[in-house]
């Protein structure tokens, strides 16, 4: 099924070149079905790349998915043109009275800062509070997952002794969850983070449940028991070369980074990495949209955010 995005968004050409069904706004207006409305709060500095990665995963859905892009007003992005932000992004003031079927909050390169020292933290808290009454289902990614757990449940993050970067094997703690329906018993996922949330802290919170973990890097998927909030601590949306680009960036900065684990064949950074996480990543997004957005969201979107 198609994903509906603005006609001129740079991601459109890339997605169409991959034979992903992208529907123009003009064509979508001539269909009578109600699209799912999904808001992406993009906190990543590489905004265009992140837009494309997430929209690629949203493409395999039961209905049209109408995407709005949201940025924080209290932080000035420096890795994307002002024109791109002005053309394609909204601020919270623009959408505060709108209801959405789904919200995705991305990661951000601010993990090692205390939450309260992040310049847009008050605005992010306002958006997360707003989501409880205006969004049916919210998906938090990486630092966004840590931020969501801290804000909603008071769960702390902790610095890791070394960055968790690479492709790691995982297993299911709750295989009966529709969120992981179709997953292999053992599957691979990408992590790229400097901080961690402890499994025992999550399991001590009765409103949360652990769905998938890794022996090497801990938590991967956590959800609320009411199936309104989802937290993924990796980056299922990452492209094949994203970890390599991050590694090469850190090498150029003189940070002496470790080679991402289990990513390059033979741990040789000159070798071409293989993508072994693409299928589970697509399945994760598809399951979230199908079971926790499409099948449960109210048809009257003004009721999104109500308890069901």
Automatic annotation (TrEMBL):
InterPro entries registered for this protein in UniProt: Class_I_gatase-like, HST_MetA, MetA_family
Subcellular location: Cytoplasm
UniProt KW keywords: Acyltransferase, Amino-acid biosynthesis, Cytoplasm, Methionine biosynthesis, Transferase
Site (Important for substrate specificity): 192
Stored CDD domains: GATase1_HTS
Keyword Endoplasmic reticulum: no
Leading EC class: transferase
Record's function text: Transfers an acetyl group from acetyl-CoA to L-homoserine, forming acetyl-L-homoserine.
Gene Ontology terms, MF aspect: homoserine O-acetyltransferase activity; homoserine O-succinyltransferase activity
Amino-acid positions noted as binding substrate in the UniProt annotation, renumbered to this chain: 163, 192, 249
Active-site residues (renumbered): 142 (acyl-thioester intermediate), 235 (proton acceptor), 237
UniProt EC number: 2.3.1.31
Pathway where it operates: Amino-acid biosynthesis; L-methionine biosynthesis via de novo pathway; O-acetyl-L-homoserine from L-homoserine: step 1/1
Catalytic activity line of the entry: L-homoserine + acetyl-CoA = O-acetyl-L-homoserine + CoA
Gene: metA
PANTHER family to which the protein is assigned, alphabetical: HOMOSERINE O-SUCCINYLTRANSFERASE
BP GO terms, sorted: L-methionine biosynthetic process from homoserine via O-succinyl-L-homoserine and cystathionine
Record protein name field: Homoserine O-acetyltransferase
Chief localisation class: cytoplasm
Source organism of the structure: Collinsella aerofaciens (strain ATCC 25986 / DSM 3979 / JCM 10188 / KCTC 3647 / NCTC 11838 / VPI 1003)
GO CC terms in record: cytoplasm
């Amino acid at each position: 099924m198609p994903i509906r995005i603005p006609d001129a968004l740079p991601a459109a050409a890339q997605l169409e070149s991959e034979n992903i069904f992208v529907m123009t706004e003009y064509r979508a207006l001539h269909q009578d079905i109600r699209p799912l409305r999904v808001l992406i709060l993009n906190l990543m500095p590489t905004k265009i790349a992140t837009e494309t990665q997430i929209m690629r995963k949203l493409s395999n859905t039961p209905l049209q998915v109408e995407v709005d892009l949201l940025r924080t007003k209290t932080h000035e992005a420096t890795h994307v043109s002002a024109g791109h932000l002005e053309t394609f992004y909204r601020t919270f003031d623009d959408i505060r009275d709108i209801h959405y079927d789904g919200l995705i909050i991305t990661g951000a390169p601010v993990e090692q800062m205390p939450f309260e020292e992040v310049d847009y933290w008050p605005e992010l808290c306002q958006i997360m509070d707003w989501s409880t009454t205006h969004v049916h289902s919210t998906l938090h990614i990486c630092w966004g997952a840590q931020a969501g757990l801290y804000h909603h449940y008071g769960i702390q993050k902790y610095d890791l002794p070394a960055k968790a970067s690479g492709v790691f094997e995982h297993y299911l703690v709750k295989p009966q969850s529709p969120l992981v329906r179709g997953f292999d018993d053992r599957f691979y996922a990408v992590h790229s983070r400097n901080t961690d949330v402890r499994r025992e802290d999550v399991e001590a919170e009765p409103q949360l449940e652990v769905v998938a973990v890794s022996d090497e890097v801990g938590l991967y998927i956590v959800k609320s028991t009411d199936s309104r909030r989802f937290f993924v601590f990796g980056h299922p949306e990452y492209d094949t070369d994203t970890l390599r680009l991050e590694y090469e960036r850190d090498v150029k900065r003189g940070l002496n980074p470790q080679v991402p684990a289990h990513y390059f064949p033979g741990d040789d950074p000159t070798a071409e990495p293989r993508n072994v996480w693409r299928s589970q990543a697509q399945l994760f997004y598809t399951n979230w949209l199908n079971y926790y957005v499409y099948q449960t969201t109210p048809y009257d979107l003004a009721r999104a955010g109500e308890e069901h």
